[in-house]
Amino acid sequence: MTRLILSTSNIMTGGPSIIRKPGADRSNLELTNSLRSNFLAAQQDYSPPLSATNGSSRDSYDEDQPSHRPQASVWTARDGSDYYIPKIDWAISGLAEEPSQYDITVKLFYLKGADIKDRPQHTKDAVNLVLKELGVPAIDLLIVSFPGMSFDGDCEWEADKKNSAQGNDEEEIESWPVLEELHNNGIVKKLGLAEFGSEKLSRFLARVKVRPQVDQVNVKDCCNVPPPLLKLAKMEQIELLTHNDCTDILPSGTLRELLGQGVRGAGILSETKRGLDGMKGDLTPDWVVKYTAVVRDRGVIENKGYFAAAELKEFESED
Amino acid sequence: MGLLALGTPLDWPEAKQSANQVREWGVKQLLAIWNKAKGKERDALLWGDEIEYLVVNYKKDNENVTLSLRQADILHALAHDEDLCTNGGCVPDLQTVKRNGGPPLPIFHPEFGRFMLEATPGKPWGIGFKDLLDVEPNMKLRRKIAKDHMDAVEYPITLTTYPRLGSPGTFTTPFYPPSGSKLRSQFVPDEIANPHIRFPTLAANIRSRRGRKVQVNVPVFKDENTPWPWKDPTVNYDLHNWPEDDDVRNGASPDNFIHMDAMAFGMGSCCLQITFQAKNITEGRRMYDQLSPLGPILLALTAATPIYKGFLADTDVRWNQISAAVDDRTPEELGETPLKHNRWRIPKSRYAPNSTYISEDNRLRKEYLDPDLIFDPDIKQQLMDGGMDSLLATHFAHLFIRDPIVIFAEDLQELDLTKTDHFENLQSTNWQHIRFKPPPAGNDIGWRVEFRPMEIQVTDFENAAFSVFIVLITRAILSFDLNFYIPIKKTDENMQTSHKRDAVLNDKFYFRKNPFAIRTPRPYSANGGSSGTTTPSISRPPTPTGPVEDEYELMSIDEIMNGSALSSSNDFPGLIPLVESYLDSMNVDVETRCELAAYLDLIRKRANGSLWTAAKWIRDFVANHEDYKKDSVVGEKINHDLIGAVIDIEGKNARKGIENLDKFLGKMAKPCGGAF
Description:
The complex is a heterodimer.
Chain A: E1 2-7, H1 29-45, H2 72-75, E2 77-79, E3 82-85, E4 102-110, H3 119-134, E5 139-145, H4 156-164, H5 169-184, E6 188-194, H6 198-205, E7 214-217, H7 227-236, E8 239-242, H8 252-259, E9 281-295, E10 300-314
Parallel strand pairs in A: 1-3, 4-5, 5-6, 6-7, 7-8
Antiparallel strand pairs in A: 1-10, 2-3, 4-9, 9-10
Chain B: H1 12-17, H2 19-37, E1 47-59, E2 62-68, H3 71-79, H4 82-86, E3 107-109, E4 116-120, H5 129-148, E5 154-157, E6 172-173, H6 198-210, E7 216-219, E8 257-260, H7 264-267, E9 272-277, H8 281-291, H9 295-301, E10 307-308, E11 311-312, H10 319-325, H11 331-334, E12 351-352, H12 377-385, H13 390-399, H14 421-427, E13 431-432, E14 434-437, E15 448-451, H15 460-480, H16 488-497, H17 503-506, E16 508-512, E17 552-556, H18 557-562, H19 575-584, H20 590-608, H21 614-623, H22 636-649, H23 661-665
Helix pairs in contact in B: 2-14, 5-15, 9-16, 12-13, 15-19, 15-20
């Protein structure tokens, strides 16, 4: 079994992929676009420079010409059973100033196909990758997003009601101790939830030791937060923050397309039966983590990016 | 405009003699600041807004509205209010203002016009999103405190200009006759200006240096019944009180222009200005450059000045009028006569769009710079000898081509290098649309940039919206490393375009097509099995730099603010979507996001035309008034009702029965009013 670790590197200076398009609210385009552009960038950067090739100019390279794609081994890296897409040069990651200058927010998305009992390990893996990427010992706020939750509905009350029956209370509470542990170890200063309506939130608060201090909600019109949720948040001193992410942030079909052989794919996964042109197997996205480092007092976002992890159960070769 | 210490001001011929001394000492003070503060680091983002008010005398049943000249009395009342004093005081020009634990009071300042008042927050704002929510209530508080210290018939209003300033008849209370010795204006009395000696001296010395009165000529709006050619009917060609009365006989008042002749017609305008503290000088220089191309766009978006001296103008904004009102250039400098006594022909007034880029940014191509920039090479050399880099030295050597206008004899005795007065003398009378401000003497304030082009808006909601928008766009610029560079001459052109009637909807502006940073490639090393050379090479050459002309294009304000339509050949993301993307990446609480959404929505709709600018609303108000005869004349009754509507918009029984308010401000039911 191989663990694929996809990364975007810092997307703040990555141009259009991060910019919201009119009408494209609540999409996972930011993640998919920035992964795709980081793959392309790595393919270019890690390929031999012009002077080292005797052939075609790489200036003519563009994403519609998959035949120009360099070998995967050039721009990806294996480390045991981990497979980094693209490879990461840890020496050039990190922040410009010392960690105390930043507010670091991390949001972890547990994905629906992953095994619940792996969540503790997934959580630690995700947080460790972020700490390593940013070169910091701790993060200020860790928000977790459980699958199957939303704030959908034509009216605010209805959305809050519907939310009450979404997700899975038992699984969510079962997942919390690892977060409490990170909090108790000082690695995470504050914990947060995403998309918890008033009823779910009050049930949750009654059963956990370390309480979440943030509930991040996505309401279409942020002026229409359900009043029961507002009331509860005020009473329990939970900060209600807004976000623009979608919960189903990396469906396996999307991941397959990102890594596949198509014109917009990275050419990592095979799409033929024989598996000659890439890896082959069952692909399960496990988690996605988003991190944001904001310079405190200046409101400048210095670094933002994503890691995504997926399991690939490779088929036995038929040959 | 704070008051400098009192002293003996020099009249122009004398001041001229001392100009070089002030410049030399100014350069020395600048170098002292530079050496002290060039390494200043990690200052927080602090920012402040400035709101300027006109004070009017308005009675419901009296057609004659006037400007109140009681600025000094109002400030006195503010400074002697016991409650305000207990809370620390709010008039630093008249009292020592202290912080007494509680939230600091807003601060009130005198302004050039004796009918004006300026108010700023009691302490600078931060970037905490809660601070952004406090801006509008604080603006409302300022308006309320000001009103509470006025007579019952006096009101602070936020119109850029008083529509009938300089019209025949009575437009001030108390009344004073025009044609005084300081301004020598046909239209306004000397008493229109703040009596503090600095202000009349400023006006008089500008006039003396120039050799005639200032000429503020605004094209008149041609309506159905406007006589054409139009001759300003208020100009008196038979006045013989002062030599300057010859100006109009010598063609100062051309056909089809509203003619004005005094500094008060420009410096009596109200603006909305925002100042930011940068983290260090590098960031300050970058902000200065990147905000420059946004100036004309925000000027057109905030257009609010369609009337001068009782006539509808054919322009929508104040900028050129202020520029002309303080233009101290001589005929030689203007290029009207050959250079004999002056050193340069100078293409712009002291009040003008800025002419320099100053950032040490490798994206700044030399093609963007002004090829005709005038600067003093000796001063540039002195600054460079003092350790300043060429780009910044050029900037200051450009500002120092001007003469100091107001010099106090007492200040010429001794050079004090711990002060910045001589430097500020020149710096603060270069009124460019972006100002780069070195740290002041004697405190811990850092390098700052001031954004100056916006027109004041009628309501505090709008003023807060534009203030907050500018703050957010600076954060987006720094976070996304945006690049708005265009040749600076194009910004000059844009600034002129902004003046056109409804430029916000009908005109196009030069703007950079792709604002995004070019990705920095990873360093390539040959361990991936390439040719085996030992030196790792920098992976790729930077993206080729094509012709500068390909980098920008003419765009509508809608496109610049809201992004290119899908059908467009452009792919500009839009300043508002950039700000929204920035907000999406920040932890913003729901209440703040709601407020910010209302602000962004106002600006979005002003840009796409679904809401009107103040200029359009005022024009519409005049056009539909029963007294309007389609002859471009804004008479007393129309003026009265317009001022009445402006007072009502921010008044207690706000917005009842005011025409077209929905088209101007949108449905003002606060979207979050119920929920919070």
